[in-house]
Design a protein that fits this description.
The chain has 183 residues and is of the alpha+beta class. It has one domain (14-172). It contains three helices and seven strands, in the order H-E-E-E-E-E-H-E-E-H. The chain has helices at 14-29, 102-108, 156-172, and strands spanning 34-39, 48-55, 58-68, 71-80, 83-93, 119-130, 135-142. The protein has a seven-stranded antiparallel sheet, sandwiched between helices. A hairpin with a 2-residue loop joins strand 4 and strand 5. The longest helix is centred in the C-terminal third of the chain and has 17 residues, at 156-172. The chain is globular. The two termini are 25 Å apart. Residues 1-9 have low confidence and may be disordered.
């Protein structure tokens, strides 16, 4: 179910260790939570699906799978108090469009889709809920090579804003689902 890989990165930061512990506990509790599935037409070229898990009406975990002609993205959102705690984005890029068979590829003089040539990358975004500062704050971003991004580097705060916005948008997808309103 989970494509999540939690590396040893963060052992130097107790906040990351606490996030890992909470995520592990949440994973163990999923079967006891309310599950809601929805389709995601229009969010990607080939559509997608999303599944959310609620505890006492509060969103705790959401996974969205977005399908494209040349790849697939799986987004995993772990929430605490309706704010993201951890976001994991796993991107798979195909060597050719998934419908490109050997015959068509030969006719077009290109390569056929080969699942063995799919390239996978994963970004992980760790958040701390900072009520004094007005909400969640990105405390660590690990890139697909498992390297931490520089918090003072170009794009770090922009990536924080983008991930917070996307987490809110994904959460809001379930706001109108009967019995599973976002709180």
């Amino acid at each position: 179910m989970f494509g999540l890989i939690l590396p040893a990165h963060g052992a130097d930061d107790p906040r990351i260790e606490l996030i890992h512990a909470e995520v592990d506990a949440l994973r163990g509790a999923l079967t006891r939570l309310q599950r809601v599935d929805i389709a995601l037409p229009g969010l990607s070229a080939e559509g997608g699906t999303a599944t959310a898990y609620f505890e006492a009406g509060a969103l705790r975990f959401l996974t969205a799978t977005l399908f494209g002609e040349s790849g697939k993205t799986v987004e995993e959102y772990f929430y605490r108090n309706q704010s993201p705690l951890l976001i994991v984005q796993t991107n798979q890029r195909y060597n050719a469009p998934i419908m490109m068979d050997a015959v068509t590829a030969r006719e077009l003089g290109t390569e056929a889709f080969d699942p063995a040539k799919t390239v996978t990358g994963q970004d992980r975004y760790y958040f701390e809920n900072d009520h004094c500062a007005g909400g969640a704050r990105l405390i660590r971003w690990l890139d697909p090579r498992d390297r931490p991004a520089d918090p003072g580097g170009t794009g770090y705060r922009a990536q924080e804003a983008e991930q917070l916005l996307r987490a809110a948008e994904r959460r809001d997808l379930f706001a109108t689902v009967s019995g599973a309103g976002a709180r």
